[in-house]
């Protein structure tokens, strides 16, 4: 059973999300929070696997709450769910430690699927948000950034390069494993090394580096 904390300052949104998730198999909404401070307190009071986090809230916003939650030992995963798809919010949420980012108009089945993936350790990002972010960042890339990205990518082995390209194309761990004929455990091991070699903290940063290096 995946234990979920729903955080949003709109009580109707909280009620809707809780009702929707309550009907999904193997998911349980264990608490609700109306702002970031309540979310941080709720996580400290009971076991939580995934926090659904709004961004713009009173008292403490979702970005600061995310930063506080993921800093704790054995922290739950934070899945940001917002109406705002501005690039700066994506960057700040990911920098704060969010494991996923979805828009509130995402269909309910996809939200449920995202929660399950994030709980299993697989980052989840809205394809639209990811594409917009990569497009904006790479459009502003300087020659120095492109050269630096190419240098980092050149440190990857042939297999790591294939995995990095698949990450840049938005493939999940399971999809990469199937396409490259390897186990999911092996994919995860490759991804760990890719993060280190590309100095990346998440999959979006890997995709950006691959784009800047001209390898996608």
Automatic annotation (TrEMBL):
Residues 149-214 form the HTH luxR-type domain. The keyword Transcription applies. InterPro entries: CheY-like_superfamily, NreC/VraR/RcsB-like_REC, Sig_transdc_resp-reg_C-effctor, Sig_transdc_resp-reg_receiver, Tscrpt_reg_LuxR_C, WalR-like. The keyword Transcription applies. CDD domains: LuxR_C_like, REC_NarL-like. SUPFAM superfamilies: C-terminal effector domain of the bipartite response regulators, CheY-like. Keywords: DNA-binding, Phosphoprotein, Transcription, Transcription regulation. SMART domains: HTH_LUXR (SM00421), REC (SM00448). Residues 3-119 form the Response regulatory domain. The modification 4-aspartylphosphate is found at residue 54. It comes from the Bacteria. PANTHER family: TRANSCRIPTIONAL REGULATORY PROTEIN NARL-RELATED (PTHR43214:SF24), TWO-COMPONENT RESPONSE REGULATOR (PTHR43214). This is Response regulator transcription factor. It comes from Aeromicrobium duanguangcaii.
């Amino acid at each position: 059973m995946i234990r979920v904390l729903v955080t949003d300052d709109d009580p109707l949104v909280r009620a809707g999300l809780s009702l929707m998730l309550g009907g999904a198999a193997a998911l349980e909404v264990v608490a609700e929070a109306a702002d970031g401070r309540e979310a941080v307190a709720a996580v400290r009071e009971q076991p939580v696997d995934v926090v659904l986090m709004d961004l713009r809230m009173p008292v403490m916003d979702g970005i600061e709450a995310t930063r506080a939650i993921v800093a704790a030992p054995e922290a739950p995963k934070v899945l940001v769910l917002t109406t705002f798809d501005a690039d700066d919010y994506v960057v700040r949420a990911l920098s704060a430690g969010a494991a996923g980012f979805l828009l509130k108009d995402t269909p309910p089945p996809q939200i449920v699927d995202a929660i399950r993936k994030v709980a299993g350790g697989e980052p989840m990002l809205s394809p639209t948000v990811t594409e917009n972010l990569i497009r904006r960042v790479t459009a502003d890339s300087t020659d120095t950034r492109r050269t630096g990205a190419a240098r980092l990518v050149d440190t990857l082995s042939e297999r790591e390069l294939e995995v990095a390209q698949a990450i840049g194309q938005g493939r999940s761990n399971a999809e990469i494993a199937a396409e490259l004929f390897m186990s999911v455990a092996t994919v995860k091991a490759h991804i760990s090394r890719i993060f280190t070699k590309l100095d990346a903290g998440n999959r979006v940063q890997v995709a950006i580096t691959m784009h800047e290096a001209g390898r996608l």
